[in-house]
Amino acid sequence: MIKLGIRPLTAKAFAPFGTVVEADPATVRMINGGTTTRFHGLATADVVGEGANVILNLFRGQPRTFPYDVTMMERHPLGSQSFHPLSNRPWLVVVAADDDGRPAEPQVFLACGSQGINYARNVWHHPLMTLDEVSDFLVMDRDGPGQNLEEFFYEQAYVIEEPRH
Predict the structure, then answer these.
(1) For residue 59, what is the domain's CATH number?
(2) Could you tell me which residues are beta bridge partners of residue 54?
(3) Is residue 37 part of a domain?
(4) Each residue of 30-66: pLDDT tens digit?
(5) Residue 75 counted as domain residue
């Protein structure tokens, strides 16, 4: 087993894998007669394939038990995938760089309850990993024809110790 460190989720650290989606004062536009603050253009959906659409889903994640063995990763070659917590609870984001068509060693980020992420198309990531309690997420995903899921199973597990949050 190889132990993985957990680091805070920041836009700079996560940039190779996609976009951190959170309220950014640089994107503010006041709308609706000045009664609503719009944080504009925080991420872009990227889908390919004829007949493909962007859809919104509600995912209800069950909390993981730690230490946790990361034994698999997945990616979506035909579309980006975006996760936005609705329960205001911290959660883990596990990603890996591509290493000649397979995921490299995973990286683990601790996201606060107000941070969402947008995985870039074809980025290796672990399925949703909630902490402590059942948590809901608004998920933007691709729907349509074509194989948009690729899974990889590691020969050796990577271990995430109990997160401190």
Answers:
(1) 2.60.120.480
(2) 142
(3) yes
(4) 999 998 999 998 988 999 999 999 999 999 999 999 9
(5) yes
